[in-house]
Design a protein that fits this description.
This protein is an alpha/beta fold. The chain has 3 helices and 8 strands, in the order βββαββαβαββ. The strands form 2 sheets. Strands 1, 2, 3, 6, 7 and 8 form a 6-stranded mixed beta sheet that branches.
Length: 147
Amino acid sequence: MKAVLQRVSEARVRVDDAVVGEIGQGLLVLLCAERGDTEAVADRLLVKMLKLRIFSDEAGKMNRSLQDIGGGLLLVSQFTLAADTSGGNRPSFGQAAAPDEGRRLYEHFVARARAAHPIVQTGIFAADMKVSLVNDGPVTIPMQMSA
């Protein structure tokens, strides 16, 4: 699985002009399931994400995790993270999980996140979403877990 974590002061997702997910301080996570990913891969990525120390402590050092600060987690499915741009000018998305498998792994990830963290919001899988955010720092961290 691939993810892009953005430390935010606030973030929201709109679908058809309605806010479907919104957080204050926390992490906006763009999440992509790839071919061959499993629930175990998703679980390991979530554990690492929740414990990643990318929030500032009292001394201004990145030394606190999302769990430490009690921040929000906004999860947005984004199959385009699987883009292969090595050939030609049109990206290929052949490494992305098939839609049904991508949905299943995304929903598994969301369910596990909700069981592990008190503030979890989401976009809508496969919807045309408008994502807005205030990136804090800016801090943007790519992550990848594989079997």
